[in-house]
Structures
1.
Amino acid sequence: MAINEWPEDQRPRERLIKHGAAVLSDAELIAVFLRVGVRGQSAVDLGRELISKFGSLTGLFAASIKDFSAIHGMGSAKYAQLHAVLELAKRAISEELQVNASLSSPESVKHYLQLMIGNKSYESFAVLFLDVKNRLIASEELFRGTLSHASVYPREVVIAALRHNAASIILAHNHPSGTCEPSSADLTLTNTLKQALALVDVRVLDHFIIANPRVYSFAEHGQI
């Protein structure tokens, strides 16, 4: 049955308008994005199929255009729209961090990093560069590696911090494996970067590990 044949109080778009987006399931949010289904499947059915196929919203956003388009009813246009939505969300949070201190918006920082590197299939190391008021100046993915390793060079992090005239930085990397806890190598690297950046008077405020949907903060665990 098509969604427009459902009772009005059960339709995702109408429920979103009346109660807000938070009340909708992942499949229903995808249905609002898709707008229409295909023969034999409502938009909500398609939403469920996409989540089942890719395992999660993170997996959906990380899907290649080839894999995404293999789903009946999907294609390059929907793929482009999906990633435009993702980029808009990231830019909206970036604007907030440019106005407000990152330390006063820790959840926004986590959400921004989840959108920035959380859906990548490879290990990615990113840095947020902050001014003296802890507002975002810029963000960069400085290093990328395989599923299990990324080579991070302290000298390059220091150069980037100086290039942006940053007073402080926030480090982040993802664990595509889904394990959120830091390894001994992660702890060693964090200390090495802190020492290197201290030489140029740049503070390391935190180091986040992103393993969507979980986020691990070194600062919250007293490790920085």
2.
Amino acid sequence: MTPAVTAALREGVSALASRLGGRARLDAPLGALTTYRVGGTAAMLVDVGSEEELRLLADAMASSSAAGRVPVLVLGKGSNLLVADSGFPGLVVRPGGAFAGLVAQGVDDPDFGTFVRAGGALGLPVLARRTVEAGLRGLEWAVGIPGSVGGALKMNAGGHGADTASCLVRYRTVGLAGAGGGEADASSLELGYRTSSLSDAEVVVWADFHVRRGSREAGKALVSQIVRWRREHQPGGSNAGSVFKNPLDDSAGRLVEAAGLKGFRLGSARVSEKHANFILADDGGTAGDVVALMAYVRRRVAAATGVLLRPEVKLVGFGPDALGEDPRAEDALAQEGRGSEIAGARTVAE
């Protein structure tokens, strides 16, 4: 079930679009801009290429009668999103241009050490390769994550023994729709396992990452090793990476496989045969099939292991009961005869 699009919300989108003029694209494809390549449109999409354009957008939102009524989503590479088939009934902001560059490399600061400054829209694999090429070490892990710098701050992206929290120094954001903004140290983000305090309406302008000077050859070798490992162990195709967060001291993929779901198909979506924590979407498939399979996997894993998996993929445009977290959905599970098993499931903290 998707959230109801109220008359007030439609009016709010219309009012904001009128204020933004030609900069706003109405009913713009959104699912196609994600790595899942399924899902509907955004009520409105605005591309921003500089901090000045971003501030003009923020001013327009603040002075519009739509302020506070139109939900906002900042879109990076779309590598961790599943968009509902009915779309997203709000404003999608897509940074690019000046936000997609590496602003500074190898800066030596007496307070922060050696760091690089990356734009919020810069792809993480590009960041990893460019820093290695400059003889800077410490960000090789990012080569295997198909997201952006802004997305890394939002989700505390990580892999191969490191994450954003381990190397982020400071950052700058611009807030929209009354959200925060400004420059702050990494501690302000409250980075946890695939979480942060960054709001959906904050756009990352830049982020500083700690690096160290080292061997370019060794850095390139590590990048190649990470790329090779991911190709061997993770599937290609239309997906958004890991679907569920790993429970403490366990692996979501192991739990899904233990429940006998590797390769399981539901409509146009299937659990990967190569890695059970990946759900793939067929060409021309639907987001509804993907989220239905996610919900089914959660139920089966809970019944088999007592662990209720939490999603790592961000669901956009879906209602609160999309994964069976609504009490009505849990009642439906009880009617299936699994109520006693699932009632004893422990919830894994996000």
3.
Amino acid sequence: MKSILITGGTGLIGKSLIESISGKGIVIYVLTRSKARSENNIHYINWSPDKGKLDLSMIPRINYVLNLAGASIDGSSWTASYKKKILDSRVNTTKLLYDKIKRLKKMPDVYIGASAAGYYKKNTKVKQTENDKMGDDFLSEVVKKWENESLEFQKLGIRSVILRIGLVLSKDGGVLKKLYPIFKLFFGVPIGSGSQLISWIHINDMVGIIESSIKDKKMQGVYNAVTPQVVSNIQFTKELASVLFRPRYPQFIKAPSLIVRILFGEQSSLVLKGLNISSKKILDSSFKFSFSTIERALKDIYHK
């Protein structure tokens, strides 16, 4: 029986992946900062990246590694201390994971590392591919350092896949969970100019890409985990309002950029700057999208 080791298993993507693979003949081990335990055939192993604590000796054999660890980029204001937490929670956890795995007698078959579309330059007219240069802001620097640590696994002879993840759509977490009450109260409007582009992915397709990365031995290197359709903030707002049966306001009604910057500071770049990301490479693999339009994705999330 195969086994998978997961960091960040209690986050949105991790929980969705676990739900998908449970009962499929894969033994699931999840690294957690809380007490070690076993629940519903899932084995939780305590670790402390801050103290360099991780013991993998209780796992007979690790076939797959999925590294999703990382503090939320919109979980708090971007103070100097929280920016350090965003970086350390990605880089230091990956370093520790590498250090422990390289000591195993038998290497895993594949390492899958989460990354982010925030790697790229913002507001580009041309879709950014995996070969394009990084941006010049805080998130780009974080992603670059994060990916550098993940690339170390290749040196161990482990097939490695790095997924630059776009905006993940799910009613159980992420942006939609935060937007839902706003739209239900009739306050859902475009932000800033509304022309900024959004590269997104349905949670089911995100899980599907991870599963494909495990199964498809030809997959290796960096992949953009985004759907082919890129939408503007205005289009996204209209589709979400429609799906939630809320009115579409006149196009001139928007949340002003200045107010957003005052309220959220540097973090406002998450909504005021667009990402135009290509999905060609993942489309050329064996993976097939189930939700390639924003209308279909939102209808599945709220009306299935």
